[in-house]
Amino acid sequence: MNVLSQVRPPPPLHDLLGVSFEFNTKITALVWDRAFAFFGLADGSVAILRASWEGAPQLRPRSGGGLEIAAGTAPPPPPAIFPVHKGEVLSMAADKLGGVITGAEDGKLQRLFDGEISTLDEKPRRKIRAVAAGRGGRRAFAAGRNVDVLGPDARRLTMPGPVTALAYDPAGLHLAVGFEGGVSMEACGIRRNPKLEGGNFCSLAWDAEGARLAAANTDGRLVVRNRGADGWEVVEDVAGNALAIAFAADGALIVAGSDFVQAIGGHGAAHVGRARHGAAPIACHPRLGLVACAGRDGAILLCRPGTADVMTIRDSGAAPTFLAFAPDGSALAFAAADGEAGTVILPDLLFRIGDAR
């Protein structure tokens, strides 16, 4: 009797091309600066990981076709950890001049660059809950209802309610503000209807051209504003409350909730994921039509909107809390609820042999 062996699914990419470490504290923020992934921690520290190092595993073409993974020849370096704040890191952003800026419970706006920590501003007895960095030394941070902008456009903006989110557009010139009670584009030079009131807007996302801003509030309302338009557009037919939003490389708005990931516009307009339904958090590849998301079982998945293609980045485990692609798309960083922080190498070669399966 002939017996056919069951086809085994490929191992998660993290097992082959990744590395992770566990911290004894909650991870509160994640951003990339060049080839380094920065993780903000609840104890006030910032940890830095690299996705690639001398002797890291590599993906390469195999003679006869296909790909093969060359095993690593050296262990990954341990995280570099810097005590940046006295109190939980509440927000972090990549600085256009290099390094990252951070806001925390101690009321300090700090910059970490090449191992050096410098104080940019301070609000004694206040918590800095949102930060953003733009071009030419522009930095913005919020404590309560006030947004202080440093650099060439130095000024103070006062919102109707406490500020929850800040985001510069990709050019680093236009600032959007989310607050308890609405969202504002006043800092973008818009004269007509700069504010939209109603709901607590905690999630902001710019498209790659900086022409559109998407904002989601805690009540499930999702809006988009074109900087050249006169008003705000409410996005309909969303599968549920938006917990995370981002723009894909093709301009589609990717929306994720507790049990769905959906592409609106662009080339795809379908739910992402099939075998395991996707969920927030999400991250969009900067160049390719790929979206990283969480699975309901705690896995990390890589999907292609509008198709059934799903690749497993990390197997089931503690729920992912943050996902972010490197600026060039060559790696993915993640954080999980149990304090795990990791990176996975994702070379373009991986996606040139057909669909991501």
What's the helix and strand layout?
Elements lengths: L12 H5 E5 L4 E7 L2 E6 L3 E6 L7 E4 L5 E4 L9 E4 L5 E6 L5 E5 L3 E6 L2 E7 L7 E4 L5 E5 L2 E5 L4 E4 L4 E6 L6 E10 L10 E12 L5 E6 L4 E5 L6 E2 L9 E4 L5 E4 L4 E4 L13 E7 L6 E5 L4 E4 L6 E5 L5 E6 L5 E6 L3 E6 L12
Antiparallel strand pairs: 1-31, 2-3, 3-4, 4-7, 5-6, 8-9, 9-10, 10-11, 12-13, 13-14, 14-15, 16-17, 17-18, 18-19, 19-20, 20-21, 22-23, 23-24, 25-26, 26-27, 27-28, 29-30, 30-31
What does this structure look like?
The structure is a single chain. This protein is mainly β and 357 residues long. A 6-stranded antiparallel β-sheet has the order 16-17-18-19-20-21, with no helix packed on it. The chain has a 4-stranded antiparallel β-sheet with strand order 1-31-30-29. A hairpin with a 4-residue loop joins strand 26 and strand 27. The chain is globular, with a radius of gyration of 21 Å. 44% of the residues are buried.
Can you give the helix content as a percent range?
under 10%
Number of strands: 31
The fraction of residues assigned to DSSP E strands is over 45%
First CA to last CA: what distance?
32 Å
- The low-confidence parts are 1-7, 353-357
Mean pLDDT: 90
Structural class category: mainly beta
The spatial strand order of the largest sheet comes to 16-17-18-19-20-21
What's the total helix number?
Answer: 1
Q: Let me know the largest β-sheet.
A: 6 strands, antiparallel
Q: Roughly how many Å is the radius of gyration? A: 21 Å
